[in-house]
Structure to design on (103 residues):
């Protein structure tokens, strides 16, 4: 009986780990790619800087994050634990915009 309980606990842990995804957003040509994105609560979004210039990612919405500067070739990630619509901008290049919908 104790053995069965351990197996069930292990399966639940696996399901929890598998349900949160990491979605990658690229930054090249001073633009986010894609320009809008839908994710699930608990997912994280990783911002890759594929550009030749530094970007600085600001996330505004139900939960706000300032990822700070991301140099070319670097990446930073943020997780989304609250539903809602988030506006993502680059603090250096105001024309860079991304909308993330968290469901
Ligand atoms: Cu930028």
């Amino acid at each position: 009986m104790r053995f069965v309980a351990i197996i069930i606990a292990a399966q639940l842990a696996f399901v929890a780990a598998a349900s949160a995804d990491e979605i990658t957003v690229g930054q090249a040509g001073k633009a986010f790619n894609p320009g809008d994105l839908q994710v699930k609560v608990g997912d994280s979004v990783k911002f890759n800087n594929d550009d030749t210039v530094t970007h600085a990612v600001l996330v505004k919405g139900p939960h706000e994050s300032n990822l700070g500067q991301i140099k070319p070739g670097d990446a930073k990630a943020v997780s989304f634990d609250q539903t809602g619509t988030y506006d993502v901008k680059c603090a250096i290049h105001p024309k860079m915009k991304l909308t993330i919908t968290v469901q």
